[in-house]
Amino acid sequence: MDGDGWGHCIDNHLGGCIWSDLWIKTHQFHDNTVTTLQFVRYGFSCLTASAFSDKNGFVQIGNLTSQGWVLTQLGPALDPGMGTALTLVPFYRKGVKDQINLFYQKSYLVMSLASWKPDNDMTEWIPNERTYRTLPFGSPIAAATSSSKASTGFGTWIEVLFLSANGIQVKTWLAAAADDYQQYMNPSVMANSTSDQKIYGALSVTAGGRAFTVVSQQGRPDAIESWQVEENALDWNSTGDVGLDRIRG
Predict the structure, then answer these.
(1) What are phi and psi of 247, to 5 degrees?
(2) What DSSP letter does each residue of 113-141 carry, written as one string?
(3) In angstroms, rounded to a whole number, what is the distance separating the alpha carbons of residues 214 and 75?
(4) Predicted confidence (pLDDT) per residue in 63-83, tens digit
(5) 196: Cα separation from own chain's centroid
(6) Which helix (H) or strand (E) holds 248?
(7) What is the DSSP string of 158-173?
(8) Which range in 16-30, 31-45, 74-88 is most confidently predicted, on average pLDDT?
(9) pLDDT at 122
(10) Contact 102, 109 (CB under 8 A)
(11) What is the structure's pLDDT at 30?
(12) Sheet architecture: strand order including 210-217
């Protein structure tokens, strides 16, 4: 995104999922809220999609086709909060084409899930698949689907991270248990201290189960903290932090 609020992308060669150096101007964004997703779907070639809040506060979905970007506005039924965090993840399913999940925050502050079903074209989204907990206004949201699949044929897990008054909370879906999200947790290694408060910034999580956040704390330089989920997909271990002053050099 440039200084005038215009988003840019690197064009993708759909046959091989190889990024080229062609930059194009796409659309005006609002408050830097943009997420992208690239994955190979069951029964499909590589798919590249993006989601962003436009300057009017609507969420737009971009689908990169052989003719270029095709944009779909999800409309008022989505009811997104102004400047909501957005995160796109694939939902791997057994024996059928994979769907796409979009996690975001509604105007009344609850986290919600919209989904694109594999038998529809990209314009047909279900705007209110599920709603979850109320989040602090403007909370970052990060989600990832495991790169591995369980014996059920589903992705082994989906982890969704967001902020709460107690620090970072995690909502976990386990393929081995049932086709639903299983539980909320506030892992102790991600908890906030009442005596030495942390201010959490952006969140991200990878398909390998590594999570990252930017942390500010009084009297200390800003740092990137990271954690790794264990094989049970429920417990997390700290993997340390790196001061931003060291990164900036």
Answers:
(1) -70, -40
(2) EEEE-TTS-TT-EEEEEEEEEE--TT--E
(3) 32
(4) 777 777 778 888 888 999 888
(5) 28
(6) helix 244-248
(7) EEEEEEETTEEEEEEE
(8) 74-88
(9) 57
(10) no
(11) 46
(12) 198-205, 210-217, 220-229, 236-243
Element (H, E) at 13: strand 6-13
Which backbone phi and psi does 78 adopt, to 5 degrees? -65, -35
Whole-number Å distance between alpha carbons of 69 and 27: 10
The per-residue pLDDT of the chain, averaged, comes to 76
Which strand (E) or helix (H) includes residue 246? helix 244-248
Which stretch of DSSP H or E encloses residue 211?
A: strand 210-217
Helix (H, G, I), strand (E, B) or coil at 45: coil
Residue 101 one-letter amino acid: N
Residue 247 confidence (pLDDT) = 52
Lowest mean pLDDT across 14-23, 44-53, 99-108, 237-246 = 14-23
Contacts of 100 (CB under 8 A, 6+ apart): 37, 49, 88, 89, 90, 91, 115, 116
Confidence (pTM): 0.79
Q: Rounding to the nearest 10 degrees, give the CA dihedral for residues 179, 229, 117, 136.
A: 100
The DSSP H or E segment spanning 244 is helix 244-248
pLDDT for 178: 52
Which tens digits make up the pLDDT trace of 98-136?
A: 788 999 999 999 999 999 877 656 557 888 888 988 998
Please determine, for residue 153, whether its predicted confidence score (pLDDT) is greater than 50: yes
How far apart, in whole angstroms, are the C-alpha atoms of residue 78 and residue 127? 5
Burial status of residue 49 (CB atoms within 10 A of its CB: 0-12, 13-18, 19 or more): buried
